[in-house]
């Protein structure tokens, strides 16, 4: 029986098109897709490869089971010299 792991991912639109995908809890786990569907597939593939490498090297596999993302707006203050 396989365990399902949960990861938060960030989809960042790129100026030339497509999306860069970042997995914050897996440092260096970054991929790209030409559209959101492809980006999601690429993210799943990247996460599987990353976690397989951690398992092979007997390192702990972090997850985002308890974490969540939200946005916070911060008003920009102007600094006068």
UniProtKB/TrEMBL annotation:
It comes from the Bacteria. InterPro entries: HicB-like, TA_system_antitoxin, TTHA1013/TTHA0281-like. Residues 7-63 form the HicB-like antitoxin of toxin-antitoxin system domain. Pfam families: HicB_lk_antitox (PF15919). This is Antitoxin HicB.
């Amino acid at each position: 029986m396989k365990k399902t792991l949960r990861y938060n991912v960030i989809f960042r639109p790129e100026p030339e098109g497509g999306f860069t995908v970042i997995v914050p809890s897996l440092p260096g786990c970054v991929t790209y897709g030409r559209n959101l569907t492809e980006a999601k597939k690429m993210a799943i593939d990247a996460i599987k490869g990353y976690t397989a490498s951690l398992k092979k090297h007997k390192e702990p596999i972090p997850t985002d089971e308890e974490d969540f993302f939200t946005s916070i707006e911060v008003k920009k203050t102007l600094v006068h010299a």
